[in-house]
Design a protein that fits this description.
The protein is of the alpha/beta class and 248 residues long. Helices cover 42% and strands 16% of the residues. The protein has a domain of 168 residues: HAD superfamily/HAD-like (Rossmann fold, 3-Layer(aba) Sandwich), CATH 3.40.50.1000. A seven-stranded mixed sheet has the order 4-3-2-1-5-6-7. Strand 5, helix 10 and strand 6 form a beta-alpha-beta unit. Helix 7 runs parallel beside helix 12.
């Protein structure tokens, strides 16, 4: 457990996660980065747009993926069913995927955030409902190494993409990847949980975090739920906030 007395009170941390903290709360509680465990979504968070959607649109041989996307957004199907169906419509070799992913930019402040976290001994995690192969390829192209990635998996046979879902929750059909499970595991005990995301796949996990940086539909969701969050437009906002916790 951490030395700070208020952090030793599990009940206090649970209540804090339920209500959420904003920047004023962080300053009041004197939270410092070494007390934190930090999670990042990838699409439209580290990347500036939804890479998976753009890849599907680029390589799809028919329009069935759009129908599945609309059903997922409407809550009629979970992301696992959506992704399985969408990938059936894709035709792309490994080489074609790598060439396409080399064109994807990431937010330049992500590297700066990694430097700040590393200096404080904090090891962030990327939790994504996309696929680890895609994320690893993009980060490698930008010379980002050593960040733990928890995501769905992809096997490539010729020009067919075959998904698997090692982090699904059989009791829940909503998400292909249960991000919440990573915030609830033993590595998170006694930590201030910080989550950075933007969309539907972040809804459940963000409710378990003490500090949520949110934009787009995630911000709308948290506002509806009455949970505090820190709004951001890009990772520069997150960088400035986390840098301020160096001497919390």
């Amino acid at each position: 457990m951490l030395e700070t007395p208020w952090l030793q009170k599990t009940g206090y941390l649970l209540n804090a996660a339920a209500a959420g903290w904003d920047l004023d709360d962080l300053q009041e509680q004197r939270v410092a980065l070494p007390q934190c465990r930090v999670f990042f979504d990838f699409d439209n968070t580290i990347s500036s747009f939804d890479v998976l959607d753009s890849l599907i649109e680029h390589f799809a041989i028919d329009g069935q993926w759009r129908v599945l996307e609309q059903r997922w957004v409407a809550g009629e199907i979970g992301s696992k069913e959506c992704l399985r169906g969408q990938l059936r419509s894709l035709r792309a070799t490994r080489e074609q995927l790598v060439d396409y992913l080399a064109t994807i930019r990431i937010d330049p402040y992500f590297k700066r955030i990694l430097d700040v976290l590393k200096a404080q001994g904090v090891h962030p995690l990327i939790v994504s409902d996309s696929f680890s192969f895609l994320i690893e390829t993009i980060l490698k192209h930008h010379d980002v190494h050593g960040v733990r990635i928890l995501a769905n998996r992809l096997r490539i046979q010729g020009d067919r993409l075959i998904p698997s879902f090692p982090y699904e929750n059989p009791a829940c059909c909503s998400c292909a990847h249960c991000k919440t499970s990573h915030l609830r595991n033993e590595d998170s005990l006694g930590k201030v949980l910080v989550y950075v995301g933007d969309g539907r796949s972040d809804y459940c996990a963000s409710m378990q975090a003490h500090v949520v940086f949110a934009k787009d539909s995630l911000a709308e969701h948290l506002e509806q739920k009455g949970k505090k969050f820190i709004g951001y437009s890009n990772l520069q906002d997150v960088y400035e906030a986390l840098k301020g916790l160096n001497h919390g």
